[in-house]
């Protein structure tokens, strides 16, 4: 025992390590993680084939002062938790004894990985905001596994955390960012749930990059005039990207926003039904989130098998409900639908160009079921030249005529009839689509 005691003193002051077949152990933790690490220090103690070791006891080095570093013994392992919050490596000496009851001394050195506090759970593409675009990176890394985030950094709460880099990465970010919940696996359920949880939160200044202009075109397909027969009437909008002639060639995913009018459409009755844009719907992740305050539906469709495909045609159908706001629709309201914030990528997150459509106007009128056919009237004739509109009606008792622009604003409200005709000067009007309402008839006209 006296010899062992002398060795221990030398071990503390001079850091003399092995006495026989024991070997130094090394482990690593992320700085500040407070992770509990279990190290089998006897596992590599095979320097002498004639000895079989068991762990006897341990003690701290002079660089580790309890209780800032917590160490406990469990069989042949040491359980180590770094709670001191410094970058200094921690050293723990241990004593092993062989089958002859001869004791040797060695050390466990735990180093600190000083990683950046740069990962925000849910910001999968590192643009400092959690939104639908982050779903694209989950699709790119889908099914990949690596290292679980450790200690206090194994969290899905929004805030900066540290994490080891994965061996895989895309053009946008390392795969560790796509592992939104930090469980070491990129999948649809657990990681997308973090995006929903932290949606819209930002860190520092967002640096979102959208697709350049050009390439394939988005299309919004919807009726020009929708008759609201009663409250809670269903309304559908079909969204397209590319066509069978001009495909969105070899793309991997798309994310974008559809804007809508909150005064007409109920945000709690808006649903996205994806179509087979990539021909095999089961290989895609489909994401939709309604922002009721802004009147936006944020969408994402992305493959999850790692391969690009030709995607074209219908992306999906938006099912919405028109809100019957009492008499508010008596004179009609103009609702615009618009696609914005589009990102089209390939499987490595290279941005592909897209063309956004002009806002799609839909005129909503409140009608009884017996008068819907009057929406396409036969007794109002409209003609025009460069500077004027000419309107002729069949009835002898003329009523007020109203014209709306694309924003639903009244441009003219007139009873200035010359017999059964009215001439309107359009010289100062902005080019675009206008809606003419006369009695219960609605017609549209383009001003060029």
Overall domain count: 4
Percent strand equals 35-45%
Report the mean per-residue pLDDT as an integer. Answer: 84
Shape: rod-shaped
Uncertain ranges: 1-18, 368-378
CATH class of the largest domain: Mainly Beta
| Strand runs, count | 28
What is the count of DSSP helices, taking H or I runs of 4+ residues? 3
> How is the biggest beta sheet arranged?
7 strands, mixed
Rg, alpha carbons: 34 Å
CATH architectural category of the largest domain: Sandwich
* Distance between the ends: 103 Å
Helix content: under 10%
| CATH fold-level label of the largest domain | Immunoglobulin-like
Structural class based on helices, strands and sheet pairing: mainly beta
Could you explain how this protein is built, in words?
Strands 9, 12, 14, 15, 18, 19 and 21 form a seven-stranded mixed sheet that branches. The protein is built from three helices and 28 strands. It has helices at residues 2-13, 134-140, 188-197; strands at 25-30, 36-40, 54-60, 69-74, 77-82, 90-97, 103-113, 213-221, 225-228, 233-241, 248-251, 253-259, 271-274, 284-291, 296-303, 309-311, 313-322, 333-345, 351-352, 354-355, 360-366, 380-384, 388-393, 401-404, 410-414, 421-425, 432-438, 441-447. By secondary structure, the chain is mainly β. Helix 2 (134-140) runs antiparallel to helix 3 (188-197). Mean pLDDT is 84; it is low at 1-18 and 368-378. The chain has four domains: 2-113, Immunoglobulin-like (Sandwich); 116-209, no CATH class; 220-369, Immunoglobulin-like (Sandwich), CATH 2.60.40.680; 377-447, Immunoglobulin-like. The N and C termini lie far apart (103 Å). Helix content is 6%, strand content 40%.
